[in-house]
Amino acid sequence: MDLQLAFILALTFVIHLIGTLAYAFRIAGVRTGKIATALSLFNILVLISRTSNSFQGPFIAKRVETDILGVASHHLMSDFSLILASASLATIVGGLLIPTVQRAASAAVDSFSGDRSVPRLLRRAMTPRGMHAMVHAFALPHRASLTALRFGKDLPVGVILLNVFANALWTVGVLAAIYAGSLDPQFRVTASTLSSIVNGVATILLFVIVDPYLAGLTDDVVRGKETDQRFRRVVVWMIGSRLAGTILAQLLLVPSAYVIVWVARVI
């Protein structure tokens, strides 16, 4: 593995790790009753994710370009499989870190409510006392989290399945567009701009069906209309379906790339 590929894998890991940790901040919002504050603080991590995302695409594109031009020889299919595997690994790690990040996020939300200053919050986190608190926030998932994976009538099966498919498309969208350039190099520039063909479907599913359902469930828990136990059960399944989506993305990479190539030729 060369340095460029290692850097791409690291960026992919960060992007999907932060995406998974969004559930921890949602849980923290429920525990503290301050959902808006929790999601606002999560935006700090979103900035890191978007910065990583802005570098990931160009680095992957450069790898494909050098292979097409014969400047360097890469096993592109293997490289893209590793990138998708990095997304799956990040989702697993993120899921394991949910209890730890949930505790740290809850403390951050409560602390932020005092002076409402993000710079002060970050400065306190970097003090010995703040670092000590973060270390003591470490916790592994309870065994109950595994038993929550059992099917039951209380699970929104349709939403969970849609989350699998949406995350698969979301994970593979940009990668398929770039990989399409290696399948038909003369249309590689056009293909690289067509990730929205795949991501568009994922965006609709995530922001029209999945996210509104989770938002409504979160509000119901805060108002006492739903139990915290069911909420956590659904969250465990959402993380599991997100992981399943990154695995499914391995199968969708090549078909999605060929669809993008076809569109690039006919438009």
TrEMBL record:
Q: Which GO terms describe its cellular component?
A: plasma membrane
Q: Give an example GO biological process.
A: regulation of cell shape
Example of a GO MF term: lipid-linked peptidoglycan transporter activity
Q: Which coarse location class describes where this protein primarily resides?
A: membrane
Give the pathway: Cell wall biogenesis; peptidoglycan biosynthesis
Membrane topology of this protein: Multi-pass membrane protein
Q: Where in the cell is it found?
A: Cell membrane
Question: TM spans, by residue?
Answer: 6-25, 80-98, 159-181, 193-214, 235-264
Looking up InterPro entries in the UniProt record yields: Amj (IPR021260)
Q: Does the keyword Transferase apply?
A: no
Q: Which residues form the signal peptide?
A: none
Keywords from UniProt, A to Z, are: Cell membrane, Cell shape, Cell wall biogenesis/degradation, Membrane, Peptidoglycan synthesis, Transmembrane, Transmembrane helix, Transport
Oxidoreductase as UniProt keyword: no
Its annotated function is as follows:
Involved in peptidoglycan biosynthesis. Transports lipid-linked peptidoglycan precursors from the inner to the outer leaflet of the cytoplasmic membrane.
- Can you tell me which family this protein belongs to? Belongs to the Amj family.
| Name this protein carries in UniProt | Lipid II flippase Amj
- Which organism's genome codes for this protein? Lutibaculum baratangense AMV1
